[in-house]
Write a structure and sequence with these properties.
Layout lengths: L1 H17 L1 E4 L5 E9 L3 E6 L4 E6 L5 H38 L5 E6 L2 E5 L4 E5 L2 E4 L12 E7 L6 E2 L6 E4 L5 E6 L1 E3 L2 E10 L4 E6 L1 E2 L1 E7 L2 E6 L6 E8 L7 E7 L3
Parallel strand pairs: 10-20
Antiparallel strand pairs: 1-2, 2-3, 3-4, 5-6, 5-11, 7-8, 7-9, 9-14, 11-18, 12-16, 12-19, 13-14, 14-15, 17-18, 19-20
Helix pairs in contact: 1-2
Length: 256
């Protein structure tokens, strides 16, 4: 349907451009479909009277007529080009959306192939030990300060592009982005977590990278860093602030 509308718009522009103003030197004009300059006259097809007519050449302002006709052709060509580019952008967007699976998760493209980022298992590390963070479980009891960690000093998902684009398919509206992780021994720290005991609230403090994002469809986003990522450990994250339900898809950027 979209393609048909664009085609009709282009045809309408072409039809509009086909009618010209043949200007006279006294400022009047005839609406014409076309005209031919002959030695002593201008032969033209009158749109108003649907017939061929002639007018003496010395009465016609050819310079103004040809200048306006050239401007109209340029505008029509520019409009047709813009509409064609918009149509191509729409096709490219639909093609891009169809590539991404419908299942919630994080993805990236390797050439034309969709790659799935596997969600990492997160643990809460307090002074009493570690416990696995389960997304659908009640918020664990945390005394004071803690860290949210994932196992391993380095991600197995090593990427070379510091401007890597990711796709995030959300199951529900939540915050998301790219976080820089800190390696500490055999774990990577995703964020620091603090419990405020009096009000029983949780403060989360991830180190977020500034990103750009584009919504491709309801719940489907493309995200990428605003600046090139420095070599190091990172993660695409999805979370509800202060709910400690963060999902982590880890990756690393390698030095060139």
């Amino acid at each position: 349907m979209r393609k048909l509308l664009v085609a009709l718009a282009i045809l309408a522009c072409a039809a509009w451009a086909a009618n010209l103003k043949l200007y006279m030197k006294d400022g009047s004009y005839h609406i014409v479909r076309e005209y031919q300059v002959q030695p002593d006259r201008v032969h033209f097809y009158s749109v108003e009277r649907s017939d061929w007519e002639d007018v003496p050449l010395d009465l016609v302002d050819l310079k103004r007529t040809e200048s306006e006709a050239a401007e109209r052709r340029t505008r029509v060509e520019e409009d047709a080009k813009a509409m064609a580019e918009e149509e191509k952008a729409e096709r490219d967007l639909e093609k891009e959306k169809r590539r991404i699976p419908q299942e919630p998760g994080a993805y990236w493209m390797l050439g034309n192939e969709v790659q799935v980022l596997k969600a990492a298992e997160s643990t809460i590390h307090t002074n009493k030990g570690r416990s696995v963070l389960k997304r659908l479980s009640p918020i664990p009891v945390i005394s004071g300060k803690a860290t949210l960690e994932i196992q391993g000093a380095h991600s197995l998902n090593v990427l070379s592009d510091p401007e890597q684009e990711f796709y995030l398919q959300l199951s529900e509206p939540e915050r998301f982005g790219i976080a820089r992780l800190t390696t500490k021994g055999a774990v990577r720290i995703v964020e620091n977590v603090t419990t405020l005991p009096v009000v029983n609230e949780i403060e989360e403090d991830p180190t977020m990278v500034e990103i750009l994002k584009k919504e491709l469809d309801g719940g489907l986003y493309k995200i990428w860093p605003k600046e090139k990522l420095e070599p190091g450990e990172y993660a695409v994250v999805e979370y509800t602030e202060s709910k400690l339900n963060i999902q982590v898809w880890d990756f690393a950027i390698k030095a060139k």
